[in-house]
Amino acid sequence: MRKIFSLTAAFLLLISSSLGVLSVYGAESIPVLKSISFTNSAIEGEFSPDVYDYTLKLDDTSETPALESYDIDGDGELFVTYDYDENGTQTAVVANLSYENGSTIYTFKYANFAEVPLSSNNYLTDIYCTYGEISPAVNKEETDYTLYIPYDLTELTITPVTADTNATCPDLTLTLSEEQSSMVLVLTCTASDGSEREYNLKIEKVDKNTEQVKDEMAQSDYVTFVEKKRAYENPKVLFALLCVAVGLLAVILLYRLTSKMVANPYDKNEKPFYKE
């Protein structure tokens, strides 16, 4: 009887220990958003990974806050979108920490949003996509851009960032096939007065996978992961071009200098030595 009781207790203890190990393992497998910040704003209070609703105080109520920095502990991806009210007015930033078994959503509502006069500001300040890279940098002069992504990134969320909080440009969620190497999208930014501006966005895959891009982005000296396509940003290429330019300039200066110094051995006013 005692042996049966001992065996039963040992069996229950084994099950309990196994469940505890699984529980700890499951908890450790969930990534944690350790910190996050946005431009043109400050989070009221201290950010905590287990608090999901915050108030965001804007420095300029007419300027859209954009993702500035974040730190994830674990294997997860952060997607940023914006919330709007029934009038199309921007009211909050939403950060979605996505991972294999689910997601964690953090909402940052604007604390000091104020009504502003209608504006024709239909510009974008950025086009954001996790593990994506925009070229050239978004500016007021150009409307044609390329979004470079890893070749194995088939599901992506594109978030246009409007310059004006009252302007709207919906985010897009896309699914690409592994064979699809590129596609072109049109993003329409609508100002609060109804005027529109269209942006042509070409999505192009590069010959690097997501893990390679993540590793490169984690480096302190990271600039770009598309060196082959954006050679003008490669320091080695810039140095080589500078050397070529300096060399050509030196040749031109040397040519002009020597052409002035070389004497003409013939004098047109000198009489011929031999008679004809």
Walk me through the structure.
The chain has 276 residues and is α+β, with helices and mostly antiparallel strands. The protein contains 3 helices and 14 strands. It has helices spanning 2-29, 210-217, 235-261, and strands at residues 32-38, 41-43, 53-58, 67-73, 77-84, 90-99, 102-110, 124-128, 133-135, 144-150, 155-162, 172-175, 182-190, 196-206. Strands 2-3-7-6-5 form a 5-stranded mixed sheet, with no helix packed on it. The protein is globular and about 75 Å long. The N and C termini lie far apart (143 Å). Mean pLDDT is 80; it is low at 1-9, 11-27 and 229-234.
SSE order and pairing:
Layout: H1 2-29, E1 32-38, E2 41-43, E3 53-58, E4 67-73, E5 77-84, E6 90-99, E7 102-110, E8 124-128, E9 133-135, E10 144-150, E11 155-162, E12 172-175, E13 182-190, E14 196-206, H2 210-217, H3 235-261
